[in-house]
Amino acid sequence: MRFRDAAKRRLTGFSERDRAGKTSSARSGRGRSAQDGFARPRSSSIPLAFVPAGGMAVVVSVRGDEEMRRHLENLGFVDGAGVVVASEMAGSLIVEVKGSRVALDRKTAMKISVGAA
Question: pTM score, two decimals?
Answer without folding.
Answer: 0.65
